[in-house]
TrEMBL record:
SMART domains, A to Z: HTH_GNTR (SM00345)
SUPFAM superfamilies attached to this UniProt entry: Winged helix' DNA-binding domain (SSF46785)
PANTHER family in alphabetical order: GNTR-FAMILY TRANSCRIPTIONAL REGULATOR, MANNOSYL-D-GLYCERATE TRANSPORT/METABOLISM SYSTEM REPRESSOR MNGR-RELATED
Pfam families referenced in this protein's UniProt entry, alphabetically: GntR
Presence of the UniProt keyword Thylakoid in the record: no
Annotated source species: Microbispora bryophytorum subsp. camponoti
Phylogenetic placement of the source organism: Bacteria, Bacillati, Actinomycetota, Actinomycetes, Streptosporangiales
Superkingdom of the source species: Bacteria
The keyword Transcription is assigned to this record: yes
Protein name from the UniProt record: Winged helix-turn-helix transcriptional regulator
Limits of the HTH gntR-type domain: 8-74, 84-152
Keywords: DNA-binding, Transcription, Transcription regulation
Amino acid sequence: MLDHDGDTHLYLQVTEILRRRIEDLPPGSPVPSEAAIQREFGVARTTARRALRVLRNDGLVYTVPGQGTFAGASNARAAAPRSNPAYRQIVQEIVERIRQGSLAPRRSVPSETSLVHRYGVARETVRRAIAVLREEGWVYTVPQRGSYVSPPENWPIED
């Protein structure tokens, strides 16, 4: 599919493939993430990022922080789905697991790597979710060891 030995940069080749796909999408449709592009084309993260940047600069896609990249010009944002950002969804699911007892106090929460694979998101998205959980009192982090479920007395008081 990609010509690794040709005279055209890989990111431009990926851009053209994505451009053809995006032309068939209605405005507001999700576009593959950098991680998904990496997996599909076997390219580096910077190659995927550069391809999306070209498409964004050409007005074919727009990005909503925490939600993803979507087909269409930036004025099509109203057509984008209005769901929780990915990090918020991770927070909600981990809080639910803590409440149900499947994640016990003073025991580790899943690692960044396992959460990245489970949710199909970037590492920064997982880090943001863990930071929110820490700020709210659901988890605490031990340097060089990981994050652990806080004791129940540290959990936020529910209204």
